[in-house]
Amino acid sequence: MFDRQEISRLEISVLPAGRRFAATLRILVKGEDVVAGAVGERGRGPFVADALPDAGPGPLWATGEARRVELGEPECSGGCCGFLTVVVQRLGGIVRWSDWEIPYGEVAPPTFHFEADRYDAELARVGVRPTGAAR
To answer: What are the phi and psi torsion angles at 109 (to 5°)?
Structure first.
């Protein structure tokens, strides 16, 4: 269905809390920080508490139902310039991130396609189980 060159690699890490924000996730796709690229270096990614909830599936978990997920906001706040959001959906063996909404004046990332097994493994590595329960 997709050319191997179109498949992206997802890497997620946890950034510790700072002066302004609680702990957040850093999201790299193809080695690039997607959130910083779309909200600026001083913005933030998703809060760990929201992305890796104690109960139930986290927002990044991909299902057959397309869902809009907030991935971050610029330094001035999402209420001012807008949030970075993406539609996440599982399409068989592929997870697609598409239909980006971006803060005012920024450039939208392209559509990304991930191998579903690798995508699930990366989410599990940072704390989300396929059953939806966090570690």
So the answer is: -65, 165
- How many whole angstroms separate alpha carbon 121 and alpha carbon 69? 19
Query: Which is it for strands 32-33 and 24-29: parallel, antiparallel or unpaired?
Result: antiparallel
Provide the whole-model pTM: 0.83
- Residue range 79-119, pLDDT digits in tens: 567 789 999 999 999 999 999 998 877 788 999 999 999 99
Q: Which of 115, 90, 112 is nearest to 99 (CA)?
A: 112
How far is it, in rounded angstroms, from Cα 65 to Cα 5?
25
93 contacts 115 by C-beta, under 8 angstroms: yes
Measured CA to CA, the distance from residue 24 to residue 42 in angstroms comes to 12
Q: How far is CA 28 from CA 60, 108, 130, 132, in A?
A: 14, 15, 21, 22
Query: What is the three-class DSSP state of 80?
Result: helix
